[in-house]
Structure formats: C-alpha cells, structure tokens
Amino acid sequence: MILLAVLFLCFISSYSASVKGHTTGLSLNNDRLYKLTYSTEVFLDRGKGKLQDSVGYRISSNVDVVLLWRSPDGDDDQLIQITIKDVSVENVNQQRGEKSIFKGKNPSKIIGKENLEALHRPILLHLIHGKVKGFYSYQNEPVAVENLKRGLASLFQMQLSSGTTNEVDISGDCKVTYQAHQDKVIKIKALDSCKIARSGFTTPNQVLGVSSKATSVTTYKIEDSFVIAVLAEETHAFGLNFLQTITGKIVSKQKLELKTTEAGSRLKPGKQVAAIIKAVDSKYMAIPIVGQVFQSECKGCPSLLKRWQSIRKHLQPDNLSKAEAVTHFLAFVQHLRTAKKEEILQILKTENKEVLPQLVDAVTSAQTPDSLEAILDFLDFKSDSSIILQERFLYACGFASHPSEELLRALISKFKGSFGSDDIRETVMIIIGALVRKFCQNEGCKLKAVVEAKKLILGGLEKAKKKEDIIMYLLALKNALLPEGIPLLLKYAEAGEGPVSHLATTALQRYDVPFITDEVKKTLNRIYHQNRKIHEKTVRTTAAAVVLSSNPSYMEVKNILLSIGELPKEMNKYMLAIVQDILRFEMPASKMVRRVLKEMVIHNYDRFSKSGSSSAYTGYIERSPHSASTYSLDILYSGSGILRRSNMNIFQYIRKSELHGSQVVIEAQGLEALIAATPDEGEENLDSYAGMSAILFDVQLRPVTFFNGYSDLMSKVLSTSSDPVSVVKGLILLIDHSQELQLQSGLKSNIEVQGGLAIDISGALEFSLWYRESKTRVKNRVTMVIIGDITVDASFVKAGLETSAETEAGLEFISTVQFSQYPFLVCMQMDKDEAPFRQFETKYERLSTGRGYVSRKRKESLLAGCEFPLHQENSEMCNAVFAPQLESTSSGWF
Q1: What is the C-alpha to C-alpha distance for residues 690 and 204, in angstroms, rounded to an integer?
Q2: Cβ proximity of 18 and 6 under 8 Å
Q3: Which strand (E) or helix (H) includes residue 876?
Q4: Quick one: CA torsion of 824, 665, 728, 722, rounded to 10 degrees?
Q5: Which residues does 56 contact at the CB level (< 8 Å), separation at least 6?
Q6: What angle do CA 647, 649, 654 make, to 5 degrees?
Q7: 147: how many CB neighbours lie within 10 A of its CB?
C-alpha cells in the first residue's frame, strides 16, 4: 500500500493530474518516466450485448510517457513524448480457442514489419491547458498506424472542471461535456456534432432509411486527488427502419492505466516549442490529430470483367425471380463503385441483349461519375433501337438514392436534344421531375441545375399547346411536387379536358395537406359540384377525395354528402363507399363527417341505401406499434357496368414518415358502344381508350396504353391474345446507405445497408363481347434482398458482421364484371402468394495475410398466402403467420 501511495503521488495530474492543483488539464511531473498499459478493443454484434456471440479483436501494448518540455511562462504549456511498446493482438472473444486467427502468430506476422516499426516510433504531443495544440509524427507513416497513435494521444486531452466546450481530436471538431466529481471526471462527446470529412450517403425517405445512435463516454478515474486510469467506451448502433432484423452494433473500448514510474530524462531548456521539437528530431512534422482516411489494399482481387463473368448467369431474364439474382446485383453495384469508366464501357459494349438491361440497371445504380459517363456514352437517345435500355436507365435514375447534380444536368441536356422515341422524351421529363423532388427533399432546391429544371417544367407547362406536351409536363410536376406549380395545376384541373383535367387533379392529390389551402379547395369544390362546367366522373371523384383528405370544413363535408343521391348511379355508390371507408378506417376526416351526419337531412335511409357496384376499401397489410402497411382499392364503374377506373394503393408508414410504395391505376372510357349502352352525363363524346398508370416508391412512371381509338379497341377485342402489358420491370436499388466512421480508438468502421428488388408490375384489361364480360388484372411480382454489413478495419486485421434477409412475393388483383344484366355482377379478388422469408447472419475475422474465421447462421420461415378483404361487408384483416422451417449454424476457417 505504501508503494502504491508513492506511485500515485509521483503521477501528478492525470498520469498525474491533480484535481485541486493549478493546472486546468493533464500535467506530468518533471524528470519522470511513466510506465502505462494500454489496450483498445472492438467487437461487433447485433445489439444483444453477448460477448460470446461477437467478433472483434484487441490491440494491447505498454506505453512510455515522458515530459520533454514545460514552458517557462506557465505549467499548462507542455510537450510530452509517447512511445508504444510490446504490441500484441488477440481475439476479444476468448472462447475462440483453436479457431483464433491470431494463434501461433507473433505481432510482426500479424501487424506487418513496416506497420510495427511505425507503431513503435514515438509521437510528440503539445498540450496547452489540457487541450491538444499540436500533434507530431514522422512523415509517410501508414495512415492506419498514425490513426492508432491519434486514438491514444486523444486520451491525454481533458479538463478538470465541469462545463461544455468544443475539442478537436481524432473524431474531429466535437462538442464535449465534462462532469467533474470527487473521484472521477467524465467526458461525454456528442458524436453527432463532430465535424470530420467522411464519405457517405443515405436514402432520403425515412421509411427506407437507417436509424442510428452513437455514444462516447470517457472516464478519468481519480484516487487521492490524482488520475490513475482512463476508461473510454464508444458505441454505434444502427437499424433499418423498414425491417428491424437488419441491425448491428459496434462497441469500441480504450483502457489506459498507470503501472509504475521511474527516473526519466531531464527537461529540455527553451522558450519555443518548435525549437524543442527540432532538437528532439528534425524529422518530426506537424500533422492533424483528426483521423485520416485510408483504404485497405485488396490483394488478389479479380478485375471488374472477371466479377461480371462470374455473376452474369444469375442475371439472365429467367433467373430474375430468384433471390440470388438480386444478391449478385447488389454485390456488382458495390464493385462498380470502384471501377473506372473504361472498364464499365468495355463490359457494356460486349454484352448480349438478354443480360444488357440488367447490366444497365446495375451501372446506373452505382451512381458514380465514372458509371454515369460510361452509360451516357453507351446509350444513343437519337436511336429507337435501344428503347428498352434507355427506359431502364431512366427509371434507375428516378429511383436513385443520392442523385448527383451532374446526372440532372445530363438529363436536361438530353431533353433539349433530339430523340428517336417520343416515349423516351416523355420519360426523360418525368424523371427530371422525380430528381427535382429528391434534391428539394435534401435542401438542394437552390442548386443551379435544380433551378434550371424547375424553370423547364413550369415554363414548359405554361407554354405547352399540344395535348401530349401538356400531359408530359403535368406528369413531371406530379413527381416534382413544386409548391409554385399549384396554380398551374388548378388551371388545368378546372379548365382542361378529360385526361388533362384528371391528371392535374391527381397531381394535386400527391401534395402534403398544408399545400391544399382554402383557395385550392375552393377550386376543387367547384370541380366536384360542376359550378362552372361539366366534368368527367373520374375528375369529380378525385377532386372530392382531395378535399376530404385535407382538413375539410363542416360545409365542405356537408355539401359533398348532400350531393349523394343527385349524382349518376355508380358515382352515388362510389361517393357513399368513400365516406363509409373514411368512417370505418378512422381517417382524419372521420370526426368532421360524424359531426355532419348528426343532421337528419343528411343521415337518412334514402341517401345511404344507394345501390351500385362501385366500391372503396382500405385495410391493413401489417400493423405494429411503430409501423403500419396499408392497402386501398377503389373502383368506379360507368352506369353501363364497364370499368371506368380502378385504383390500388399500398402505403408504408413508420412513425411520422410515409412511403407511397405503389399505385396502379387502370382507366377506361368510351367503351359503351361495345354493348350499345348510353354514356353517363358529360362523357358522351369520349374517345375509346384504356391505359394504366403507376407510381412506384414515390415515383410516377410513364403511363402505358392498352388501346387508343375505336379501331385499336376492336382489334384488341377481336384478338385472342390477352397478354399483360408491363408497366415496370427491372432491378432496383431501393435502399442505399453508406457510412464511414472514425472510431476514437483510431480504427475505421464502415456501415453499409443495401436493399434491392427484382420487380415486375403488369396489367391487362380484357373484354368478351360473347360473354358480355370484362376483366381487369394487375399482377405484382417482387423479389427483395436486404443486406446490412458493418466492418471495423485496422488495415492488418478486419472484423465484420453481415445480416441479410430475402423474400420472393407476389400480389395479384383481379376484377371481373358481367354486364349482361343490371345490377351487373362483380367479383373482386386480391391475393397474396405464399412467400418464403430467409434470414442470414455472417460473422468473420480476417488478417490482411488472408487467414480468417467465419461463422454463419441461417433461419427460414414461410409466410402463408392469403386473400385481402375488398368490401366493407368482409373487413376481417388478412392474417398470415410466420412458420419456422429451418435453422442452421456453421463456423470455421477460411
């Protein structure tokens, strides 16, 4: 005990910092050499906190610290030398035993001779009032080794009084809070405040985004007024909002303890620290204490071409429904992000037409300057021979997680040029609108390219004369959702004809409620009640839906309810179904509707007993305390029993965020002549038309046409073919999160979360004059793979944890109408196929020499298929239960 007391008294301030002394931070005693032990360890798991289930490593060493110089003008101005010795590396999980990748290897073999020599070279630290003023090391040392030294040196920065300040250390310029106690000083670093240059991006929509939480606490232990040890712990936890099984946690710890002191070198005389440093060794140079970026060398990695050749068979059209296709797509996107333009072009130019569309998906999804240049050089928009490839490129741009301003400039430039296809020209403008919205969501509305794109959309819509151009710009505005475009939408909604008016109204439907002001609702009410002109049923019902979903007033709800009974027969039934759906599903307008229904003149049998086949229904696909997934289907028929519009929507909600997962709208008009029926009011002169429009993950796609005109209609009716028309097909990078972390221990960590889809949405509208029957079919096939990967890299050793999930699912909606008599018979089905759900976990540790350990787990479940209710008379929720099928675990060397 006496010996320990003497040691503590010799170790003044921290590493002998006196809490009661005159120093404001750590201060070392003159002519003493301090012997300390130091360790930094890191482990990865899924947040369960069980060390035996984790992977990671520990780097341990002895540390010598000596005071070289103290300013004659004040004790708080010091230059200290820190030397790392006797380095060792071991598993953080001691249960690894014979499977340890470090077993039988000395530090030189593990770390590398050059790295070890650099680690042993001393560093100098200039402290003023306990804060780092300068950090000095040797030139051209490996960055990863310098970062480890920075991590150790940062522990010497502290203050002895409570308070909040900003400090610069290995983590960057960070806000820190000190809490001084009698036996300890606690430093809490706000990691989210740290300013440090690191690459990264994320998906802007929080439904598909990643939530993370980071903490950093350093405790300086004090005994008998002296600091005797430093304990630091930093944690980073992340989870995918959409799927909570994709999680990970990094725990990084540092421990520095005093063991003994002995006589050291005498202080160097002098007034200027620069002269002292030069006298110690002229090769010392000042470098930032902030951690620097390094990339681990990939030894023996195959070229991009070889990687492509190894996976291209999985991306054949026949294999796209398999999860392996999406897994390889995601892996190849990662490889493309490090590839050069020439490498990418070489593959594009030599690939055959069957696999080329999937390759275009991957190259576009990479979202790097090289991949963008390569794909733009490869595609010829003036030619109509590669329309499929051009369309796949444009849709991949629309779904981009972090589009660049260069991409938007390129599309604007292409739009101003010539095209081999009018459809591609229209798609370019639609995707420009989608990109504008993404930029504005990320506070990029004032970027030069975004400003130009907004002028192009709004100016084009104002000046457009042709119906085709008006529709094109309206579709772009429907994606961009510019507040300044609302007056133009109102103009076309009220004064436009048919499809133009309907499109403008559906564009208004996508705006957030705060933008649907009283002035906007006045116009929509005029449209619904036809105060100025006759409108089609599709336009009127959409206008009413916007009003009812935007904080409607008492009189607005009352007037809409009073109109029921005065409308065309099927429109009566449709509006009644909309109101009943609002009440049943407890939508925001339900309270106001209930208030209005207290009036007997409104709530009576005559009004609420209207017959018809039109319907509206909203239900839950999935519901939990933090999230919900809903579907809705509304169908409007004409008075003759022919489909006028079917509208199916799927929304995903997580807390206060929402994602419009999909919308498929099938519209038909002017078909009454087929069965010699009388058109409804305002629809006597409509051309025969049927088509489909879709929104996918908040992006409006280019509508497709089944037929247009009477002659085209008759050719389809008389044709025996009923092949579905594809709305969108391809591979989509839906979730894309990349984050590089500088741990305060000096280690580098990366968090990557990618989610991909192989998707095929198609629809068909079939007629049979013989059976007097029409059938609408919408089919969704989706294969989804999500991969979360976290790694911690010291350049010579790396640990990683990968969690993934995959499924192959299908959803089909079929509506059959027999109109041989009235009331006509309607059968509606929405079925979800049985779907496998597989989860994987891979943990590994690997040396730069190639030796490694890996552990794998797999769990498979089966999600039963089910039918969803589509009528209020059958509102029981579709329940499907996961049934465990298979679990397996394996581990070993590689």
Answers
A1: 35
A2: no
A3: none
A4: 20
A5: 41, 42, 43, 44, 91, 92, 93, 792, 799, 845
A6: 165
A7: 23
Residue in the structure block whose two tokens are 């769990």? 859
Looking at the predicted structure, is the pLDDT value of residue 588 above 90?
Answer: yes
The tokens of 217 are what? 């606490």
Q: 713 vs 744, which has greater pLDDT?
A: 744
Contacts of 350 (CB under 8 A, 6+ apart): none
170-208 b/e (C-beta count within 10 Å ≥ 16 → b): bbbebbbebeeeeebbebbbebeebebeeeeebbebbbb
Question: Do 447 and 405 contact (CB within 8 A), yes or no?
Answer: yes
Contacts of 405 (CB under 8 A, 6+ apart): 439, 444, 447, 448, 449, 450
Kind plus residue range of the DSSP H or E element containing 704? strand 704-708
Helix (H, G, I), strand (E, B) or coil at 8: helix
Residue 390: C-alpha distances to residues 32, 352, 384, 625 (Å)? 72, 16, 9, 42
* Of 593 and 885, the one with more pLDDT: 593
Residue where the block lists tokens 């499924």:
807
Question: Which stretches of 536-655 are assigned E, i.e. beta strand?
Answer: 615-623, 627-637, 643-654
Q: Taking a C-beta distance cutoff of 8 angstroms, is the pair 63, 256 a contact?
A: yes
How far apart CA 240 and CA 47 sit, in angstroms, is 13
Picking from 213-217, 519-523, 661-665, 680-684, which range would have the lowest pLDDT averaged per residue? 680-684
Q: How far apart are CA 783 and CA 475, in angstroms?
A: 28
Instruction: Please write the tens of the pLDDT for every residue from 821-849.
Output: 655 677 777 777 888 999 999 999 999 88
The CA R_g of the chain, rounded to the nearest whole Å, is 34
Does residue 22 carry a pLDDT above 60?
A: no
pLDDT of residue 385: 86
Burial class (CB in 10 A: 0-12, 13-18, 19+), 42: buried
DSSP letter, residue 269 = P
For residue 10, report the phi and psi dihedrals to the nearest 5 degrees: -75, -25
Q: Which two tokens stand for residue 737?
A: 């999160």
SS3 177: strand
- Rounded Cα–Cα distance for residues 701 and 703 (Å): 6
* HEC assignment per residue over 613-642: CCEEEEEEEEECCCEEEEEEEEEEECCCCC
d(CA 570, CA 97): 75
Q: What is the pTM of this model?
A: 0.88
Distances, alpha carbon 93 to alpha carbons 42, 44, 58, 102, 247, in Å: 10, 11, 9, 12, 20
Q: At 811, which amino acid appears?
A: L
CA distance 621 to 628: 8
Greater confidence (496 vs 314) lies with 314
Mean pLDDT of the chain, nearest integer: 87
Query: Which H or E element spans position 848?
Result: none
At 567, list the tokens: 């409308």
Distance separating the N- and C-terminal Cα atoms of the chain? 50
CA distance 144 to 161: 33
Q: What is the pLDDT of residues 93-141, one digit of tens each?
A: 777 777 788 888 899 999 999 999 999 999 999 999 989 999 999 999 9
Dist CA 564 CA 582 (whole Å): 15
Structure tokens at 671: 């078909």
Say how many CA atoms lie within 13 Å of 246 toward its Cβ. Answer: 26
